[in-house]
Design a protein that fits this description.
Elements (H helix, E strand, L loop, with lengths): L1 E2 L7 E2 L8 E3 L3 E3 L5 E3 L8 E4 L5 H16 L5 E7 L3 E6 L4 E5 L4 H16 L6 E6 L2 E5 L3
């Protein structure tokens, strides 16, 4: 903010913001969800590829997602929401986890059980799809 008073020197106030997310690859979001330009610094921040109105929805489940994946040493690199697929996450080791639109307790339970299964069996799928009613699908094609 710049203040100019006719009888005083020009004053400039600079407010710094700490980025928490990279939103749509173009902006940072801070903890208050204030948007400011992304200049390429902090590329390791979580990338949110969601409509801005769904960011609060992500905030509601963020802790649960991190708890589920960090138990298996996975790090989420991006979170995406599309109308067609719902929510999906990509990890730093290129695993995609399709959650769908319903982020219920059942989905998180299914995620934990599926991750436990693939790590116990030493499997390396490229996609875990949790959108099925009766279980999960694993894809090894990517």
């Amino acid at each position: 903010m710049i203040k100019k008073n006719a009888f005083k020197p020009l004053e400039i106030f600079i407010e710094s913001k700490e980025p928490k997310y990279i939103w749509q690859g173009k902006f940072y979001l801070d903890e208050n969800l204030s948007k400011f330009l992304y200049f390429g610094e902090h590329p390791d921040l979580l990338h949110l590829l969601t409509p801005i109105e769904l960011v609060p929805e992500w905030l509601k489940i963020e802790k649960r997602v991190y708890e589920a994946v960090e138990a298996f040493n996975l790090k989420i690199s991006s979170v995406t929401y599309t109308e067609a697929e719902g929510w999906y996450f990509n990890t730093r080791n290129n695993l995609r986890i399709n959650m769908g639109s319903d982020l219920s307790n059942k989905i998180f339970e299914k995620l934990s059980l599926t991750l436990k299964y693939i790590f116990e069996k030493n499997l390396t799928p490229s996609i875990i799809d949790l959108r099925y009613k009766d279980g999960a699908a694993l894809n090894y094609g990517k």
